[in-house]
Amino acid sequence: LIQYRGRGLPISEEVVKAAAENTELSGSMILEFLFKCKGDSLVSEEVVKAAARNPANGVKFMGILFKRRWEDLPVTEEVIKAAAGNETCGTEILSVLFRHRRGSLPISKNVVITAAKNTESFVRCLLRHRGKRLPVSEEAVKTAAANTKAGDAIIDCFLELFEKNLPVSEGAVRAAAANTMLGDVIIESLFRHRGKMLPVSD
Predict the structure, then answer these.
(1) Which pLDDT tens digit goes with each residue over 79-96?
(2) What does the alpha-carbon distance between residue 68 and residue 20 come to, in Å, rounded to a whole number?
(3) Which letter, b or e, does each residue of 126-137 get, where b requires 16 or more Cβ atoms within 10 Å of its Cβ?
(4) Phi-psi region of 102 (alpha: psi -120 to 50; beta: other; left: phi over 0)
(5) Chain-centre distance of CA 6, in angstroms?
(6) C-alpha–C-alpha distance, residues 88 and 22, integer Å
(7) Does residue 152 contact residue 119 with C-beta atoms inside 8 Å?
(8) What pTM does this model have?
(9) Whether the Cβ atoms of residue 97 and residue 68 lie closer than 8 Å to each other
(10) Cβ proximity of 54 and 60 under 8 Å
(11) Nearest to 52 by CA among 15, 24, 91, 16
(12) CA-CA distance, 201 to 128, in Å (whole number)?
């Protein structure tokens, strides 16, 4: 196809998105070829989201996309949420995004909530770049408390930085109590920082 059709191939945004979802080693070669044939005009938010979700090639694909569209690559809240949901290489993708966009990344409450479902490393990356400006809501704390894989570590990250200012609701305590894997550790951490101020109803 490459040899015989070249620039005559019917390449659409959906084709580029499919390439960005490719988890095989050949994925980067395919993506580069599509750009060679069609330029970078088909790099949309959906394409960037697909790259951010890619568990195998996400970091490499994001590098390719920034090389092509460094100044106006559409890095939106949805793109960062896609990276936040990538448990394999989401932290590395987030580091790439911060390296290129720094303070202009749209880190919202919804991004933090999605990150609270992920790994400690992703949350630490957010905290390292945003510190106390990171919008950690009651819902984010509740989501972290329910996280059966890394909830204890994420809650500790939040507590280390925000201490008594962390918005811990009764819903978060209930979520921790229902956490079958890490609930006891999370409740102990919350109680250690809040003591009798921990919101627990009768």
Answers:
(1) 999 999 999 999 999 999
(2) 14
(3) bbebbeeebebb
(4) left
(5) 36
(6) 15
(7) no
(8) 0.91
(9) no
(10) no
(11) 91
(12) 34
> Is 132 in a helix, a strand, or coil?
helix
- How many helices (DSSP H) and strands (DSSP E) are in the chain? 12, 0
Distance (Å, whole) CA 93 – CA 71:
17
The encoded tokens of residue 185 equal 């550790």
Handedness of CA 183, 187, 188, 190 (dihedral sign): positive
Read off the pLDDT band of 37 (50, 70, 90).
Answer: confident
Residue 200, CA distances (Å) to 162, 190, 194, 197 in order: 20, 11, 11, 8
Q: How far apart are CA 67 and CA 44, in angstroms?
A: 15
C-alpha span between 190 and 176 (Å, rounded): 10
Q: Where are the beta strands (DSSP E) in 102-160?
A: none
From residue 151, alpha-carbon distances to 56, 89, 106, 124 in Å are 24, 18, 24, 13
Q: Which two tokens stand for residue 146?
A: 């329910």
